[in-house]
């Protein structure tokens, strides 16, 4: 009777904690959704909100063979579909639901620029559905796995902070995108491969890659980790068999995702051309990476042609990930895998071709997943990453949402985690916050010189890039010099023992 009573109490406590975490995460998302979105009231192109709505329109009314093709009802210069097939299928599902509610929202051609209150509420709701179906379960499963490793990290603390990551909330529910889908699929892949369910993990990562091509940021750590684990099989037959199984999982998943576009070589090549638009250049707008920041003093785009820039960025990106990747291959532990995900995603963001400011979210996920090992770095990185996107959020009328999400995340982190415990970290973080505050004031109160209209935005990019470079170096230090120490350290610290997982 006592055992049954205890089990019932634990189940009740678990359910209450889960509901509390979900409620807080949803409340924050709903609050952000009350603000503006990308391109609101800015014809003729509007913004990412219109792009997502337009893809619903196109996929609903046209056959798959025409989704990526120029045609009388598909002008590729007006938000042509440029994400992989899984995004297109998701757009079709959302378009079907929108058409069932109000056909005017997704009417072919005539719905361009539609911004009624109804479509805004509907599309905000579709992001929340993606969250609840993919991202929230992935976060919960990762948090449960982490707690079961004996790291002393409370399940609900981990889940809450991952769900409150300000950059992800603001871009998906403010600016308007569906990063929660690809990031959730990638996190599910992480959960499965660290539990040695490699084939299932490969399937989920392939799905993530087929939802957003930017998941290439995470591809190399998956490759090295899975290769390293395969090479540890006791026999050659085991090694070959495991690699063959991984290859089959990836190829079969790819084939299923691309099936409607494999009818001809031209169709498949057109999809590839759309999702890898090299003609757009090495970076767009102002972004906190090496190419944009160095462009101030060294005009790469004037000296090198597009093809040479693409080759140079590819070489530098791969070279910057190679040491950590080889280390992971020889020491394929879950801890090293997570650190390498953070390193590789930062390498891609800072050095790869065609980077957007929102791509920093690819680094936010693995860095936040390291809060059990390095809470100070995880919290600090989130604040800076969100700050780097402030000029974009300012355009979206998301200033209130920006400051609100930053404060909520920072307050929760300081309450739940032992971060900034040393005098050095407190001073360094305080100076970083002062720098961000100063740039906020300058951007709001000062006027840039006429011949340098983007000066203040560029200062934000440079400030953020310096931080990202420091984090990239720091994670290398953690990978090479602290391997094997973090698990024991985290177990001893017992970050928060208010909730314990069996």
In short:
By secondary structure, the chain is mainly alpha-helical. Helix content is 69%, strand content 0%.
Describe the structure.
By secondary structure, this protein is mostly helical. It is built from 22 helices and no strands. The longest helix is centred in the first third of the chain and has 32 residues. The chain is globular and about 60 Å long.
List strands and helices in order, with pairings.
Blueprint: H1 2-33, H2 48-61, H3 85-101, H4 117-148, H5 155-163, H6 166-176, H7 179-194, H8 198-211, H9 219-231, H10 236-258, H11 265-275, H12 290-294, H13 300-303, H14 306-330, H15 334-351, H16 361-368, H17 375-388, H18 390-395, H19 399-416, H20 423-445, H21 455-481, H22 486-493
Low-pLDDT runs of 5+ residues are 492-502
Order of helices and strands: HHHHHHHHHHHHHHHHHHHHHH
Q: Can you summarize the main beta sheet?
A: none
Structural class: mainly alpha
Mean pLDDT: 91
Radius of gyration, rounded? 23 Å
Share of helix among residues? Answer: 55-70%
The helix tally amounts to 22
- Number of strand segments: 0
* Strand content bin: under 5%
Head-to-tail CA distance between termini:
20 Å
**Overall 3D form:** globular
List the main descriptive attributes of the protein structure presented here.
single chain, 502 residues, mainly alpha, 22 helices
């Amino acid at each position: 009777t006592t055992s049954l009573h205890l089990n019932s109490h634990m189940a009740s406590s678990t359910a209450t904690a889960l509901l509390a975490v979900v409620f807080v995460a949803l409340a924050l998302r709903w609050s952000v959704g009350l603000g503006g979105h990308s391109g609101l009231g800015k014809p003729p192109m509007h913004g990412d909100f219109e792009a997502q709505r337009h893809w619903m329109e196109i996929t609903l009314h046209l056959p798959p063979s025409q989704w990526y093709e120029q045609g009388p009802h598909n002008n590729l210069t007006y938000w042509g579909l440029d994400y992989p097939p899984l995004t297109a299928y998701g757009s079709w599902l959302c378009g079907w639901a929108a058409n069932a509610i109000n056909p005017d929202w997704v009417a072919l051609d005539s719905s361009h620029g539609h911004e009624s209150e109804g479509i805004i509420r509907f599309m905000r709701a579709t992001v929340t559905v993606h969250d609840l179906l993919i991202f929230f379960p992935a976060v919960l499963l990762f948090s449960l796995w982490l707690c079961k490793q004996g790291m002393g990290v409370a399940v609900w603390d981990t889940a809450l902070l991952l769900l409150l990551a300000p950059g992800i909330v603001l871009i998906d529910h403010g600016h308007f995108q569906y990063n929660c889908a690809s990031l959730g699929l990638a996190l599910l892949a992480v959960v499965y491969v660290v539990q040695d369910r490699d084939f299932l993990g490969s399937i989920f990562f392939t799905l993530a890659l087929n939802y957003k091509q930017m998941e290439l940021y995470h591809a190399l750590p998956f490759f090295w980790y899975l290769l390293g684990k395969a090479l540890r099989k006791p026999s050659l037959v085991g090694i070959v068999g495991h690699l063959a199984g991984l290859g089959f999982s990836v190829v079969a998943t790819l084939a299923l995702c691309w099936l409607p576009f494999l009818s001809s070589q031209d169709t498949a090549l057109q999809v590839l051309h759309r999702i890898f638009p090299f003609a757009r250049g090495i970076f767009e707008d102002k972004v906190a990476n090496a190419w944009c920041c160095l462009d101030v003093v060294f005009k790469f785009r004037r000296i090198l042609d597009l093809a040479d820039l693409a080759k140079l960025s590819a070489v530098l990106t791969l070279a910057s990930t190679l040491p950590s990747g080889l280390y992971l291959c020889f020491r394929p532990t879950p801890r090293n895998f997570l650190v390498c995900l953070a390193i590789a995603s930062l390498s891609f963001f800072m050095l790869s071709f065609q980077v957007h400011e929102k791509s920093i979210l690819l680094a936010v996920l693995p860095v936040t997943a390291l809060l059990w090992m390095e809470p100070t770095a995880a919290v600090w990185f989130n604040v800076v990453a969100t700050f780097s996107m402030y000029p974009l959020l300012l355009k979206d009328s998301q200033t209130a949402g920006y400051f609100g999400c930053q404060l909520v995340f920072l307050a929760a982190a300081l309450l739940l985690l032992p971060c900034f415990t040393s005098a050095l970290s407190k001073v360094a973080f305080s100076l970083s916050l002062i720098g961000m505050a100063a740039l906020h004031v300058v951007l709001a109160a000062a006027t840039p010189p006429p011949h340098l209209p983007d000066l203040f935005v560029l200062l934000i990019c440079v400030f953020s890039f310096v931080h990202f470079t420091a984090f990239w170096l720091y994670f290398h230090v953690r990978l090479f010099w602290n391997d094997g120490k973090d698990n024991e350290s985290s177990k001893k610290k017992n970050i928060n023992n208010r909730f314990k997982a069996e």
